[in-house]
Write a structure and sequence with these properties.
The protein is α/β, with parallel strands linked by helices and about 400 residues long. The protein contains 14 helices and 13 strands. The structure holds pyridoxal-5'-phosphate and zinc ion.
Length: about 400
Amino acid sequence: MTRLVCYRCGETAAFPERKRCECGEPLWFDTDGAAAGFAWPDGDAPGRTGGPWRYADLLPVERRDGVGAGAGDTPLVRAAGLDDDAGCRLWLKDESQNPTGSFKDRGSAVGVAWAAANDRPWVGTVSHGNMAISTAAHAAGTDADCVVLVPDDISAERLAAIAQYDPRILRVSGDYGRLYYDALDADVPVEFVNSDTPLRVAGQKTTALEICAAFAAGAGDPDRTAPDAIVLPTSSGGHASASWKALRELEAAGLLDADSLPRLCLVQAAACDPIAEAYREGREEVTAVDAGETVAYSIANADPPSGTRALAAVRATGGAVVSVPDEEILDAQSTLAAEAGFCAEVASATTLAGIRRLSAAGELAADDAVVAVLTGTGFRELDADGETPEAVDLGTLPERLRALAE
Ligand SMILES: *Cc1c(COP(=O)(O)O)cnc(C)c1O
Ligand SMILES: [Zn+2]
């Protein structure tokens, strides 16, 4: 699998020489042949076990040992207690259970495995968040070195989270959004696995493959072959594109038909919502916005490299794009923890906030089976926000027993 194709103009190109099409859009692997003969794998064949590797027939590389062998295979949990709040029947795909706590491990597993199998001395990424942590961790157990390009003003906490895996960290000043393109164009022996590059998209499509596999096996709603909607927090548009790719492959394999195709619904933070803006205005192209600050920093890409492709995914599946203000995001995050027990990253909590709005707008119905993808863990960002949470002080032991008795 070395041929890439453009979803928009159909142009093809060779991997790894190219990542984007002449028309400006991102390329992905041409899997038409593989998808046509694809059937749901039953059981674990040697060399492919779980996670992304279960779908090795649709991937450009075989499984390798190391942290990537434990990527994916995350739980799909029915959260009936949140149905009334969400306005639909809710399932949560818990991506926090990946080795470094986010779905980025799916793409890093495939990207780093490919680099190792193809004698690439270096892998790289442009990120100061989950993708940097994930890529560095996956490279740590291989012969490939890892280079991470971070912005100049990165915080010490974030730097430490990345640095524990000992990649080469390069600080860069100037336009960090531009750096995505500069890195791909640079004539250096580094395989960049950026947010929406073909290898990362190949790995990250397995989130949607796993969701559909669970429903196909009756582990979701036994009356449906797939969920009615999949809801994703969206930044670069890489994960949304990858999810669309998964659905297209399942359609080509005859495992989903047009009637059972899940709608892809994307959620953005109101302060930085270029894809939602283009959707609201009925445009086909996503363009850069002047973004403000948001608590959902992991989804704050003001100029998403796969924005237009993600919008095409929404239109093709009959989905929607919605943006949510910070107060609603934080409220949804509290609800996910207090009412369901999930410690989701703020960016991931946008899913519940978005679902509330989509239900209120009639885009989702009470009977719809909806999967919210909780893309990352909230454990990394826990702090008390300057306030000490409330707890009853019971004093020393004897007094405590008396107080408990009371
Ligand atoms: C990267 C990330 C996203 C956004 O994914 P894109 O592919 O860039 O759209 C959402 N949530 C979390 C936690 C992430 O790390
Ligand atoms: Zn093209």
